[in-house]
Amino acid sequence: MTMLFDLTGKVAAVTGANTGLGQAMSVALAKAGASVALIGRSAPDQTVEMINAFNGKHAVIMADLSEAESTERAINCAEEALGPIDILVNNAGIIRRSESLDFTEGDWDAVMATNLKSPFFMAQAAARSMVAGNRPGKIINIASLLSLQGGIRVASYTASKSGLAGLTRLLANEWASRQINVNAIVPGYFATNNTEALRGDPDRNRQILERIPAGRWGEPDDLAGAIVFLASSASDYVHGALIPVDGGWLAR
Length: 252
Fold this sequence. Notes:
globular, Rossmann fold, seven-stranded parallel sheet, alpha/beta
C-alpha cells in the first residue's frame, strides 16, 4: 500500500514555496521521495533548510509568474535542474482587501495575474512537457473556500479562486485522456501570512473558530496527506476534484 504514495524518482514543481502552505507541501513531497523545484519571487531559504535536513533533492527557481513567458521559463529551468516535470503544484497566490465600492483596478489586476493567469500558463507549460514526453502527470491547483463561497472585501481574490475551480475542471476534461490528472485542494482557514489580518481581529477570529467543527485553524502540515495523495499513483482515477481540507467548515 505504501508504494501507492511513493514519489521516488518523480520531479515536482511548487510555486510560492517559500512560506506557509507552499513550504509545507514542498517538504511533504520531498519526504515522499520527489525532487522539488521551489519556484517563486522570494528566496525559499527556510524551505531549503527543511528539505536539506533529510537530504531531500531540490532546486530553487526565482521567477515572477505574473507574465506568461515567465511561467514557461520557470518550467524549463526546473527541468534543466531536476529533469522532466511529473507534478505541478500551483500554490502561489496573493490577496487584496477592500470594500467593493472602493476596489481599484490595480488590486484587481495584480490578484488575477498571480492567482488565475499564472496557474493556467504554468499548467500549460507543464502539460506540454508531459505530452511531448508521452508521460503521465499530476497538476494540483490550490483553490480556496472562496472558490465555493463569496467572502467579503476580497473581490478579486474570490473571482480568481472561483475561476481556478472552473479551470481545474476544464483542464481535467481536456487532459484526462492524456493521463494528466488535474485536481485542486480547497484549504480552509489556515494560519498563514494571508490570514494574519483575520486572526488578528478578535471578532472575526472568534466567528471563524465557532464555525470550524475541528475547533482550530489549520496548520500548513495538515495539507501533507492531501498533496501526496494527489501527486501519487493513489489518485490515478481522480480527475477534476476539489478536495476540501477545512476542518469541517463546508460541512457545517
